[in-house]
Amino acid sequence: MRCLYEGLLRGTKASGALTEGMRGVQEIRQFSHPSHWAGFTLIGCDVRLSNKSAMLGNALGDLLTTPSKCREALRVLLHLIEKSLQRINRGQANPMYTTQQSIVNKVGPVRGWQELLKSVGFRFEEEAGSSIPPSVFFPISDPGDQLLKASSSLQALLGLQSNTLSAICKMLPAPEAAQEVIAMVK
Protein backbone atom coordinates (compact mmCIF):
# COMPACT_ATOMS: atom_id res chain seq x y z
CA MET A 1 0.00 0.00 0.00
CA ARG A 2 2.86 2.38 0.76
CA CYS A 3 4.32 1.84 -2.71
CA LEU A 4 0.88 2.40 -4.27
CA TYR A 5 0.36 5.73 -2.52
CA GLU A 6 3.93 6.87 -3.11
CA GLY A 7 3.34 6.22 -6.82
CA LEU A 8 0.08 8.17 -6.74
CA LEU A 9 1.78 11.09 -5.00
CA ARG A 10 4.51 11.07 -7.67
CA GLY A 11 1.79 11.54 -10.28
CA THR A 12 1.75 7.97 -11.61
CA LYS A 13 -1.61 6.75 -12.93
CA ALA A 14 -3.49 4.47 -10.51
CA SER A 15 -2.89 1.35 -12.64
CA GLY A 16 0.86 2.02 -12.79
CA ALA A 17 1.05 2.72 -9.06
CA LEU A 18 -0.85 -0.50 -8.33
CA THR A 19 1.50 -2.44 -10.61
CA GLU A 20 4.52 -0.92 -8.84
CA GLY A 21 3.07 -1.91 -5.48
CA MET A 22 2.39 -5.47 -6.60
CA ARG A 23 5.89 -5.82 -8.07
CA GLY A 24 7.38 -4.44 -4.87
CA VAL A 25 5.63 -7.15 -2.84
CA GLN A 26 6.65 -9.84 -5.34
CA GLU A 27 10.32 -8.92 -4.89
CA ILE A 28 10.19 -9.64 -1.15
CA ARG A 29 11.01 -13.32 -0.84
CA GLN A 30 8.54 -14.20 1.93
CA PHE A 31 5.70 -12.40 0.09
CA SER A 32 6.47 -13.51 -3.48
CA HIS A 33 3.60 -16.02 -3.58
CA PRO A 34 0.57 -14.66 -5.50
CA SER A 35 -1.65 -15.02 -2.44
CA HIS A 36 0.12 -11.95 -1.03
CA TRP A 37 -0.19 -9.64 -4.04
CA ALA A 38 -2.63 -10.99 -6.64
CA GLY A 39 -5.80 -9.98 -4.79
CA PHE A 40 -5.34 -6.25 -5.37
CA THR A 41 -7.57 -4.88 -8.11
CA LEU A 42 -8.12 -1.41 -9.50
CA ILE A 43 -11.82 -0.53 -9.53
CA GLY A 44 -12.89 2.71 -11.17
CA CYS A 45 -11.08 5.16 -13.40
CA ASP A 46 -7.37 4.98 -14.06
CA VAL A 47 -6.75 8.45 -12.68
CA ARG A 48 -3.66 10.47 -11.85
CA LEU A 49 -3.61 12.68 -8.76
CA SER A 50 -3.19 16.26 -9.83
CA ASN A 51 -4.26 18.23 -6.80
CA LYS A 52 -0.96 19.84 -5.85
CA SER A 53 -2.54 21.65 -2.89
CA ALA A 54 -3.61 18.33 -1.34
CA MET A 55 -0.12 16.95 -1.88
CA LEU A 56 1.36 20.04 -0.22
CA GLY A 57 -1.05 19.73 2.72
CA ASN A 58 -0.23 16.04 3.21
CA ALA A 59 3.49 16.79 3.09
CA LEU A 60 3.12 19.58 5.67
CA GLY A 61 1.14 17.18 7.86
CA ASP A 62 3.99 14.65 7.66
CA LEU A 63 6.56 17.34 8.48
CA LEU A 64 4.62 18.38 11.56
CA THR A 65 4.57 14.84 12.98
CA THR A 66 8.09 15.47 14.31
CA PRO A 67 7.52 18.55 16.50
CA SER A 68 11.02 18.75 17.94
CA LYS A 69 12.69 18.74 14.52
CA CYS A 70 10.16 20.27 12.14
CA ARG A 71 11.08 23.95 12.63
CA GLU A 72 14.57 23.47 11.17
CA ALA A 73 13.16 21.39 8.31
CA LEU A 74 10.61 24.13 7.57
CA ARG A 75 13.44 26.69 7.44
CA VAL A 76 15.47 24.59 5.01
CA LEU A 77 12.47 23.99 2.75
CA LEU A 78 11.55 27.68 2.80
CA HIS A 79 15.12 28.54 1.79
CA LEU A 80 14.99 26.13 -1.18
CA ILE A 81 11.60 27.43 -2.31
CA GLU A 82 12.65 31.08 -1.94
CA LYS A 83 15.83 30.36 -3.93
CA SER A 84 13.67 28.89 -6.70
CA LEU A 85 11.37 31.91 -6.71
CA GLN A 86 14.36 34.26 -6.91
CA ARG A 87 15.79 32.36 -9.87
CA ILE A 88 12.42 32.34 -11.65
CA ASN A 89 11.88 36.07 -11.05
CA ARG A 90 15.36 36.85 -12.42
CA GLY A 91 14.66 34.75 -15.51
CA GLN A 92 17.41 32.25 -14.81
CA ALA A 93 16.50 29.14 -16.79
CA ASN A 94 19.73 27.18 -16.44
CA PRO A 95 19.37 23.99 -14.37
CA MET A 96 20.31 24.21 -10.72
CA TYR A 97 20.45 21.30 -8.33
CA THR A 98 21.59 20.22 -4.91
CA THR A 99 22.25 16.72 -3.65
CA GLN A 100 19.58 14.83 -1.76
CA GLN A 101 22.16 14.04 0.92
CA SER A 102 22.79 17.74 1.47
CA ILE A 103 19.10 18.28 2.20
CA VAL A 104 18.89 15.18 4.40
CA ASN A 105 21.85 16.47 6.45
CA LYS A 106 19.98 19.73 7.09
CA VAL A 107 16.39 18.53 7.63
CA GLY A 108 17.30 15.51 9.73
CA PRO A 109 14.86 12.69 10.51
CA VAL A 110 11.74 14.57 9.38
CA ARG A 111 9.30 12.91 6.98
CA GLY A 112 7.45 14.73 4.21
CA TRP A 113 10.18 17.03 2.90
CA GLN A 114 10.55 15.14 -0.40
CA GLU A 115 6.80 15.14 -1.02
CA LEU A 116 6.60 18.86 -0.27
CA LEU A 117 9.36 19.66 -2.75
CA LYS A 118 7.82 17.38 -5.39
CA SER A 119 4.42 19.03 -4.93
CA VAL A 120 5.86 22.42 -5.91
CA GLY A 121 7.87 21.27 -8.91
CA PHE A 122 11.26 20.07 -7.66
CA ARG A 123 12.50 17.06 -9.61
CA PHE A 124 14.31 14.15 -7.94
CA GLU A 125 16.81 12.11 -9.94
CA GLU A 126 18.65 9.02 -8.83
CA GLU A 127 20.42 7.75 -11.92
CA ALA A 128 22.73 4.81 -11.39
CA GLY A 129 26.05 5.27 -13.09
CA SER A 130 25.59 9.03 -13.37
CA SER A 131 28.48 11.36 -12.61
CA ILE A 132 26.36 13.23 -10.05
CA PRO A 133 24.92 11.76 -6.83
CA PRO A 134 21.14 11.51 -6.27
CA SER A 135 20.02 15.09 -6.80
CA VAL A 136 17.14 17.51 -6.46
CA PHE A 137 16.66 19.89 -9.39
CA PHE A 138 15.07 23.29 -8.79
CA PRO A 139 11.96 24.21 -10.81
CA ILE A 140 12.42 26.77 -13.58
CA SER A 141 8.80 27.97 -13.56
CA ASP A 142 5.92 28.28 -11.11
CA PRO A 143 2.68 27.24 -12.83
CA GLY A 144 -0.31 27.81 -10.60
CA ASP A 145 1.85 29.77 -8.13
CA GLN A 146 2.56 26.57 -6.18
CA LEU A 147 5.98 27.81 -5.04
CA LEU A 148 4.47 31.07 -3.88
CA LYS A 149 1.68 29.28 -1.97
CA ALA A 150 4.18 26.92 -0.33
CA SER A 151 6.39 29.84 0.64
CA SER A 152 3.44 31.60 2.28
CA SER A 153 2.42 28.44 4.17
CA LEU A 154 5.95 27.80 5.43
CA GLN A 155 6.38 31.42 6.49
CA ALA A 156 3.08 31.28 8.38
CA LEU A 157 4.12 28.12 10.23
CA LEU A 158 7.56 29.53 11.04
CA GLY A 159 5.91 32.71 12.32
CA LEU A 160 4.15 30.76 15.05
CA GLN A 161 5.64 30.61 18.51
CA SER A 162 7.32 27.32 19.37
CA ASN A 163 4.63 26.27 21.85
CA THR A 164 1.86 27.06 19.33
CA LEU A 165 3.61 25.07 16.59
CA SER A 166 4.13 22.21 19.05
CA ALA A 167 0.41 22.24 19.97
CA ILE A 168 -0.57 22.09 16.29
CA CYS A 169 1.82 19.18 15.79
CA LYS A 170 0.20 17.30 18.67
CA MET A 171 -3.33 17.92 17.34
CA LEU A 172 -2.66 16.56 13.84
CA PRO A 173 -2.98 12.88 14.82
CA ALA A 174 -6.24 13.62 16.68
CA PRO A 175 -8.47 15.70 14.35
CA GLU A 176 -11.48 15.20 16.62
CA ALA A 177 -9.61 17.00 19.43
CA ALA A 178 -8.79 19.83 17.03
CA GLN A 179 -12.47 20.16 16.16
CA GLU A 180 -13.33 20.39 19.87
CA VAL A 181 -10.74 23.13 20.39
CA ILE A 182 -12.07 25.06 17.38
CA ALA A 183 -15.62 24.76 18.71
CA MET A 184 -14.52 26.01 22.15
CA VAL A 185 -12.71 29.00 20.62
CA LYS A 186 -15.80 29.92 18.60
How many structural domains are formed by the residues?
Answer: 2
Task: State the CATH topology of the largest domain.
Answer: Methane Monooxygenase Hydroxylase, Chain G, domain 1
Low-confidence stretches: none
- The strands making up the biggest β-sheet line up spatially as 1-3-2
Largest sheet: 3 strands, antiparallel
- End-to-end separation in angstroms reads 39 Å
Percent of residues in beta strands: under 5%
The CATH level-2 architecture of the largest domain is identified as Up-down Bundle
Extended strand count = 3
The helix content, as a percent range, equals 55-70%
CATH class of the largest domain: Mainly Alpha
Total DSSP helices? 9
Shape designation: globular
Structural class: mainly alpha
Describe the protein in words.
With 186 residues, the chain is mainly alpha-helical. The chain folds into 2 domains: 2-36, no CATH class; 52-185, Methane Monooxygenase Hydroxylase, Chain G, domain 1 (Up-down Bundle). Helices cover 57% and strands 5% of the residues. It has 9 helices and 3 strands. Helix 3 (52-63) runs antiparallel to helix 6. The mean pLDDT is 85.
Considering the chains and any ligands shown, give keywords for the structure.
single chain, 186 residues, mainly alpha, Methane Monooxygenase Hydroxylase, Chain G, domain 1, 2 domains, three-stranded antiparallel beta sheet, 3 strands, 5% strand, globular
List the helices and strands and how they pair.
Blueprint: H1 2-10, H2 14-26, H3 52-63, H4 67-89, E1 97-99, H5 100-107, H6 113-119, E2 123-125, E3 135-137, H7 146-158, H8 162-171, H9 175-185
Antiparallel strand pairs: 1-3, 2-3
Helix pairs in contact: 1-2, 3-6, 4-7
Protein name: Putative tetratricopeptide repeat protein 28
Organism: Stichopus japonicus (Sea cucumber)
